[in-house]
């Protein structure tokens, strides 16, 4: 049986549309384009359902045929998410209150997708962490309320099954997978005490002795926690906004490792500077870190936090593993020029090096063969559009946003694990009418008079100068001029036979 074709959701100022992915890359005829501006779009975890809110209502449809599942009259909805088994749809709108209603309305609503009824309406003022976190089997759901964690079982949001109360829980992350569920919690330091992250297994919350692992550290205003796929370890990126030494504009970051068997470590990075990105391999046995002052280093570490492979330095600030884990992409987006390095993880060999200037978004297709790069507003409001690539560097599809419109988001349809098996890595570019944008090798400088001409024996470099200073003269087949003064300057220009000659000096 042939594998399914992934769908790409495209959201912009001209509406929302679904695109069938490679190899055809055409609009999905089963989905009727919504011309209204959508505030948010989301696929269910298994990819069978698609939902969006357009300022009038929230609509849920089946991806397979576009048929409507549910429609909710919620014009103020700003965000929405599906529970892992598509039982619950969570919707959130900005919290507001009036003189007539000083308490405001409950702005987080949990809907039963089968019946369309509201299971529970809750108050959630902050957008950060607005959505409850579910275990993959939906037996547990958790949300943060007033610096403590409330746990619910079997989607019963009326009764709180358990609570985890520490001093001031600032962040938490529920582990992926089924039972037994684990949770990582972060408590910021205060009054000279260090910050710490602890791992607990639900429902054993009986103090420090019940923690699976504990890691304390200073210099942390905020943290980002990342579980591996098998829920055996967590990476914690701790950040402080201001570097008191003045060494970095980006503050200071450290990376810590905690395992459910109790092991902890501080990951020793090999270059000073900020940590730009961290990613676990889908195998859960290694992780990659992009770090250090530009040009940034990228290094793969094992579960002992020992370096396994070093990619050297380059203009990069992001790392992405393919869903199957056999390919890794290092990229430089945002304020960098948009270069991708595609690597075969098993052989540690570079596959391609495409150029993607002005890109603001990157995402792997679930098939592990293709990626999408997008230039989206508000990060960039000009030259919006997206491209679908093969990882060998070939552009298979390109869509530029029409003048006067903006592209806001591109999202791949997810699929259950195992839907797309791993394929052997290819090194030869896939044929395409749009070609590729492989980075060209750097060539030696040639003066304007010699450009677009074949290199001949008369076109050569002649070096002059002593220790500390080197003069380089470009010979064009006629007499060379020499400077008459002895004071070194950056550039001398001489005119002769209607040609200009430039002498450069290089301080060694």
Automatic annotation (TrEMBL):
GO terms for molecular function: mRNA binding; ribosome binding; translation initiation factor activity; tRNA binding. Pfam families: eIF2A (PF08662). Functions in the early steps of protein synthesis of a small number of specific mRNAs. Acts by directing the binding of methionyl-tRNAi to 40S ribosomal subunits. In contrast to the eIF-2 complex, it binds methionyl-tRNAi to 40S subunits in a codon-dependent manner, whereas the eIF-2 complex binds methionyl-tRNAi to 40S subunits in a GTP-dependent manner. Belongs to the WD repeat EIF2A family. One of its GO terms (cellular component) is cytosolic small ribosomal subunit. The lineage of its organism: Eukaryota, Metazoa, Chordata, Craniata, Vertebrata. Residues 215-408 form the Translation initiation factor beta propellor-like domain. This is Eukaryotic translation initiation factor 2A. Residues 430-449 are annotated as: Disordered. InterPro entries: TIF2A (IPR011387), TIF_beta_prop-like (IPR013979), WD40/YVTN_repeat-like_dom_sf (IPR015943). PANTHER family: EUKARYOTIC TRANSLATION INITIATION FACTOR 2A (PTHR13227). One of its GO terms (biological process) is regulation of translation. Keywords: Coiled coil, Initiation factor, Protein biosynthesis, Repeat, Translation regulation, WD repeat. Coiled coil: none annotated.
């Amino acid at each position: 049986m042939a594998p399914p074709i992934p769908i790409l959701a495209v959201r912009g100022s001209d509406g929302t549309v679904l695109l069938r992915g490679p190899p055809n890359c055409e609009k999905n005829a089963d989905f009727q384009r919504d011309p209204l501006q959508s505030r948010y779009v989301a696929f269910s975890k298994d990819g069978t359902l698609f939902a969006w809110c357009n300022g009038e209502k929230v609509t849920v449809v089946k991806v397979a045929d576009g048929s409507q599942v549910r429609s909710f009259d919620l014009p103020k909805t700003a965000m929405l998410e599906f529970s892992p088994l598509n039982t619950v749809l969570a919707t959130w709108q900005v919290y507001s209150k009036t003189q007539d209603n000083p308490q405001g309305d409950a702005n987080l609503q949990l809907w039963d997708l089968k019946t369309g009824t509201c299971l529970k309406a809750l108050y959630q003022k902050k957008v950060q962490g607005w959505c409850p976190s579910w275990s993959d089997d939906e037996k547990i759901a958790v949300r943060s309320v007033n610096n403590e964690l409330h746990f619910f079982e079997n989607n019963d949001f009326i009764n709180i099954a358990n609570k985890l109360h520490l001093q001031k829980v600032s962040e938490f992350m529920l582990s992926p997978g089924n039972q037994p569920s684990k949770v990582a919690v972060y408590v910021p330091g205060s009054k000279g005490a260090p910050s710490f992250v602890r791992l607990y297994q639900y429902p054993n919350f009986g103090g420090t002795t019940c923690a699976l692992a504990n890691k304390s550290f200073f210099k942390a205003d905020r943290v980002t926690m990342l579980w591996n796929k098998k829920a055996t370890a967590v990476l914690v990126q701790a950040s402080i906004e201001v570097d008191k030494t003045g060494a970095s504009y980006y503050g200071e970051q450290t990376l810590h490792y905690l395992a459910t068997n109790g092991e902890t470590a501080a990951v020793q990075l090999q270059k000073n500077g900020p940590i730009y990105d961290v990613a676990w391999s889908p195998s859960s046995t290694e992780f990659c870190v992009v770090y250090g002052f530009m040009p940034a280093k990228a290094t793969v570490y094992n579960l002992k936090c020992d370096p396994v492979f070093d990619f050297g330095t380059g203009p990069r600030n992001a790392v992405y593993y393919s869903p199957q884990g056999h390919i890794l992409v290092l990229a430089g987006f945002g304020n960098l020029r948009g270069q991708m390095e595609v690597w075969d993880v098993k052989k540690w060999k570079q596959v391609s090096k495409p150029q993607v200037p002005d890109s603001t978004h990157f995402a792997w297709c679930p098939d592990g063969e293709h990626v999408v790069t997008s230039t989206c507003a508000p990060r960039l409001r000009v030259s919006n559009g997206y491209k679908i690539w093969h990882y060998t560097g070939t552009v298979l599809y390109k869509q530029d946003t029409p003048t006067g419109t903006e592209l806001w988001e591109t999202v791949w349809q997810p699929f259950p694990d195992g839907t797309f098996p791993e394929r052997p890595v290819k090194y030869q570019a896939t044929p395409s009418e749009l070609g590729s944008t492989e980075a060209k090798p750097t060539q030696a400088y040639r003066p304007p008079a010699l450009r677009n001409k074949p290199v001949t024996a008369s076109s050569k470099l002649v070096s002059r100068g002593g220790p500390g200073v080197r003069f380089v003269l470009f010979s064009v087949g006629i007499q060379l001029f020499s400077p008459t003064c002895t004071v070194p300057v950056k550039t001398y220009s001489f005119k002769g036979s209607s040609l200009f000659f430039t002498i450069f000096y290089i301080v060694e």
